[in-house]
Write a structure and sequence with these properties.
Two copies of one chain form a homodimer.
Chain A (H helix, E strand, L loop, with lengths): L5 E5 L7 H10 L4 E7 L18 E4 L7 E5 L3 H12 L6 E8 L11 H11 L4 E6 L12 H14 L5 E7 L9 E4 L5 E11 L5 E11 L7 H6 L2 E8 L8 H4 L5
Parallel strand pairs in A: 1-2, 1-5, 2-4, 5-6, 6-7, 8-11
Antiparallel strand pairs in A: 3-4, 7-11, 9-10
Chain lengths: ~260, ~260
């Protein structure tokens, strides 16, 4: 690529999140960067879009650097729609989302605002990658991730991501050990068992907090969960054709 | 099935929506019905869940009938989590979501609150079906759909929906013609081209309304779009393993 690639950067933890700032630092070394991110955290937003209320979008500058930045009142998917269809004057060469503070591996991909932004870009024909670190802390250490993010992004720009596929990249939480490498994986079969913490407010009305326990039912060594639990970075090619093609034939035996 | 099946009913248009009321009427003829639905419309919510604020849930009665009803302050996915993990004392035999006022065919499945509720049930191991009518009107005529919904639901209860698969059922908008039948389909490849309607509020601040045009790039006669445009009900088996298995091999050629 002779001219600098145009890179759209977004996330779901909000435009001031340290994970986003780390991602911007890596991307400004690779290309021309435009940031369009939610004005406040939007975790667990899934692929929500804003239909029934107006969107605000302000040009701001959170940290020094060559990047352009826009703060948006919408969801992560809104940010991508607004960027591609309104704010940018050409289609980005790459869209990166994250670095998410927390896991988007296995079934978490379904609830993830980070991945919904990347998927939205993919739907609109823009190569896209979501990055997440298995650490919920606001001040998590993103520094060791940078060289891997650069490598994956450059490879994506050079080789191209398969059509209608978006990459879901998760980094393991490491304390004293080092990252062992990267693995192309499939999404592990897993689910959450919810526990609702039931309380009573000062006015006597009951309410619930959603909490839960993650259950991995899938011990396959080709899964993202296995990779992450064994010190590897997981890269799952993720698609938005949700058709369960393998079950078409069985359903055709139904009497309808 | 000797005892009456337990059926969980939910939606994304809110507990007072006529589409939900029609679905309840069908389901009370089949089984024991518990309704857990959002207290107000939650369209375009995708698979959002409520992590950062408490959930309220009130037992109410909107229309006469044998069903139990709960109105919930959360998203469609929250409603299903709350129902399965907290409100019901056994796992439902079926979860139905809808009838959505509007289309959830092709790429719309990704943005759909209706389908996110069905998918959440699927993730938790409950057979699930989302129903939608291609008519956004609040007073749309749901009556002609009832016999089809009953047939599909009875077939699902009897034959079982394949594991890790959720059905996405869409009904065509018909004026003077009749429904031609039902078709098992794949999700058409399509996307929206967004148009942002930019305005200025009385205080001089700019804002946007999200609007768009649906673009179907896929003329396949095995797609949901083809079926709906030709007077058929489309049934797409939908999965929540988002892995693009076909692209694993190609990504393994990357230098990582």
């Amino acid at each position: 690529m002779k001219t600098k690639p145009l890179i759209l950067v977004t996330n779901d933890d909000g435009i001031r999140a340290p994970g986003l700032r780390s991602l911007i630092e890596v991307m400004t070394k690779i290309g021309e960067v435009v940031v369009v991110a939610p004005d406040s955290p939007r975790s667990g937003m899934g692929h929500a879009i804003t239909i029934n209320s107006p969107l605000h979008c302000d040009k701001i500058k959170v940290t020094d650097g060559p990047q352009l930045e826009y703060s948006c009142s919408g969801t992560p998917a809104d940010c991508v729609k607004l960027a591609i269809n309104e704010l940018l004057n050409k289609k980005p060469d790459l869209c990166v989302s994250g670095i998410n503070h927390g896991s988007n591996s296995s079934i978490n991909v379904v609830y993830s605002g980070t991945m919904s932004a990347a998927i939205e870009a993919g739907i609109e024909g823009v190569p896209a990658i979501g990055f997440s670190l298995l650490d919920f802390k606001w001040n998590a250490d993103f520094k060791p991730l940078k060289k891997y993010i650069k490598k994956i992004s450059l490879e994506a720009l050079e080789k191209g991501i398969p059509k209608d596929v978006v990459l879901n990249v998760n980094f393991p939480l490491l304390q004293n050990t080092k990252i062992k490498g990267m693995k192309i994986c499939r999404q592990a079969r897993a689910h959450w068992i919810e526990e609702f913490d039931k309380r009573t407010n000062p006015m006597g009305r009951e309410y619930y907090w959603l909490t839960g326990t993650f259950i991995n039912e899938d011990k396959g060594e080709d899964t993202d969960e296995w990779a992450l639990n064994n010190g590897f970075i997981s890269i799952v090619p993720t698609q938005f054709d949700l058709t369960a093609h393998h079950s078409l034939q069985r359903l055709n035996t139904w009497t309808l």
